[in-house]
Prior knowledge:
The complex is a heterotrimer of chains A (about 300), B (about 290) and C (about 350).
Chain A: H1 13-54, H2 59-62, H3 77-109, H4 113-125, H5 130-145, H6 149-174, H7 177-185, H8 190-218, H9 222-228, H10 247-255, H11 260-294
Chain B: H1 9-48, H2 51-54, E1 58-59, E2 64-65, H3 68-99, H4 102-117, H5 120-134, H6 140-164, H7 168-176, H8 181-210, H9 213-218, H10 237-244, H11 250-285
Antiparallel strand pairs in B: 1-2
Chain C: H1 2-18, E1 37-42, H2 47-56, E2 61-65, H3 69-77, E3 83-86, E4 103-117, E5 126-127, H4 129-136, H5 146-151, E6 163-167, H6 172-185, E7 204-206, H7 208-218, E8 222-227, H8 228-233, E9 237-238, E10 240-242, E11 248-249, H9 253-260, E12 285-293, H10 299-313, H11 330-339
Helix pairs in contact in C: 4-6
Amino acid sequence: MIAELPLDLRAKPSWRRVKSQIMIGLMVAAVGLVLVPLISVMWSVASRGAGVAFHGFPAFFTDEIPVISRSEGPGMGPAILGTLMCTLGATLIAVPLGILGAVYLHEYGGKRKFAKLVRFMATVMTGVPSIVMGLFVYVTWTLRFGYSAFGGSLALACLMLPVVIASTEQMLRLVPPHLREASYALGATKSRTILTIVLPAALPGIVSGSLLAVARAAGETAPLLFALGLGATSYNAHFFTQINTALSQQIFVNATSSFAGAQERAWGAALTLVMLTFIFTIVARLFTARIGRKK
Amino acid sequence: MISLRGTTQRADATFRVVAIIAAAMVLVILGLVALTMTVRARPVLSEMGLEFFTSRRWSPADSKFGALPFLWGTLYTASIATVLAVPVSLGVALFITQIAPPWLKKPLVYVTDLLAVVPSVVFGLWGILVVADKLGGRSFLTAGVILAIMIIPIITSLAREVMETTPASDKEAALALGATRWEMITATVLPHSKGGLVGAVMLGLGRAMGETIAAALVIGSALGQITVYPLASGNSMPAVIANEWGEADELHKSALIALAVLLFVITIVVNLIATSIVQRSMKRSGGTA
Amino acid sequence: MNRTVLLAVAVLTLAACGGKKGDAGGGGGGGGGGNVTLNASGSTFQKAYEEVAITKFKDGKVNYGAGGSGKGRQDLADQVVDFAGADSAYKDAELPKNKGGEVLYFPILLGPITLAYNLDGVDKLNLSAATIAKIFERDIKKWNDPAIVADNPDAKLPDTDIVVAHRSDGSGTTDNFTKYLVKAAGDAWKLKSGSTVEWPADTQAGNGNGGVAQLVKTTKGSIGYVDLSDAKASGLHYASVKNQAGKFIEPSSASASAAGDGIEVAPNLLFSALDAKGDGAYPITYQSWVIVYAKQTDKAKGTALKSYVKFLVTDGQGELAKLDFAPLPKSLQDKAVAQLDKIQVP
Lengths: 295, 289, 346
């Protein structure tokens, strides 16, 4: 295969070496280019958000959102609660469904046409824009039952589901077949085997994959715009009723505000959200590391 | 540890059915999305007919809705984003897989994945308050740049996976014949990964088209703007839906849902093509599909 | 492991459904007294006043979601909210769609629409109606255009492109701004008037008065129409506009009040303060109403609503000057208070 390819090994060695070094240099530049926005975003969020987020700790995390939007000062408590409620709700819906779905695909489905279709569609589903899911939930849920955190959870669950299925299936594949075979040999049924042998064996990976999906869901904005409603500034712990708010939504709304205080709160909320998603991601990585160590 | 008592045949069969239903949820949800949204989009389509897709005029007050400028904005910004992101992503992926010493690989992977963890709304906030100033305001270009930053981790991680499957024997053979690093890459890694890379780029493109919030904040929300001047402010399908939804009446909402359906169809098509390309290329090269 | 997880999940779910300990239904928020929650939406012009009123209102809790006058009217028509804030009235054709029947308009404030701009080195700017019209139609594209220079002989106007900012949502501010241009700019203004207008393609849009204010604040060379309260609180420069008497008047609470003298009020308390006569009147002064259904269906809500509207037109008026609005002229205020009796509570 190599002999057919246009490698001109007769050309002067020094130019070829220089060319190679230039290209490698460009690759390094690419890496640098990736680091620039990353550092800039982190720096902006940290420097602009830390002031309002930590001044008078824990005011920013527990105070209500100021009703007077042009006022300065802290308060994102209700948004933090809203983010946690919507994310938790979405997790409770999407993770069990996703795990069961992946169980079907890997343990029962195999090469069947139905399984192939589901697998393919799940991958396609990861590419559906979040705003489409948000509108879908609006049309099917919000219109009938009004604004609520549950609507937000539904939308986020739709986004999480394919990701959980894909990562869980990957983990199930890594469980050695001899574990299953030993279990059948001892007389256990298939469902028993899956529940008591296979899933526990794949658990760290499943948790890791689910946490990454949760991290993505926590940061989503578009679906929540259509499910939570506008104007909430105080705590609303009612899951199924009444308007609510979330960190991502607050950031969006305050990003287009002209008042310095509101913009500050947006940065503070961004800092909180980034810290939240980072915690999820780091915990997910710890679980992945555990799998590595076990092997 | 294993209880051999209990679980009857029925329980076993029930579990299987439950699992099947769970898997079917994917199809059910996708199907419902397509169905309910299309039904809701009908009013505006019967009102405007095919003109919906060809008219430039978007005037809720007069009940005239033309999707063309938003279609243009979506495609244009996604193209800018892809053009900017692809060289960077490929460069990073090549560096990580072919050039970087082993101790550097993991940290670099972590760093590029960090970019994927940052929520899109935070990118939007950073874009509107920090970046837009430096790029000449809110425009197609600013939106394209922010989108590019957001899709780089997607393309990079997939490109990495594909490149890793290049047979080591091929690479070593090229080097043994006297090829420089770069020549080895062009001779073995790139031809081998071609399919997968195309798929990766298309997935990035699909993601850029569907990105709502970051685009909504920095694109400028102009109406009727169809131009290739990158510094012009414009609009895109997801951006206009997010911005105008709040105060839309029934027909206006129907129009916005129609835009969402259009977006849904386009992104699904792009993702379908990309997924099949990637899966086929992975199978051929023996990677994990 | 499974059992503990299930138990934890069950406990969490019950806790979430039951509500946070110590929180009354409807949340803490501004009002300490009653348990009633009123929902409202609409005009961003009156948002600043609503926010202050909400923190001072003790007979219940009010949520005001500012999505634009158009949305407010729509939400009230669909009965998704208890009252609407709007800077312009329902069109006659829209009235039959109001599910709750007859509506009452309560004026609550007056205020100027400013032409806010962002131009280095230019702290004072004079604009006349025809010039404003041409800028927003993109007939005038640069800051040093002869028409602008003619009204500002002393200013150092640079050769920069003008970036035009307007509203993307259905806006009473847009409605009043364009009505003013129709009246005062005559043939120079071709885009007619309305809550949404077909602006030229090379202009930018923001959501709400706040969105336009932010656009102007962050974009060099830009100009947009923003209510004074938001413009001032955002630290923007704004222009003095030529009124009917030929004088360039700076927008302020006082010049808005001057425009409010001598307005003609219809029996249903609709009126317009645009393009007022009078030497000291700011020509682009407009107004905002709270719209409610005359026939209330819920006793608790109806009572709270009546009390809230009363606050807005009586005690609340003292807060307006601080926020750079103008209070209602006395005769108008009396009429508004009298109209309160028309709200029928079961």
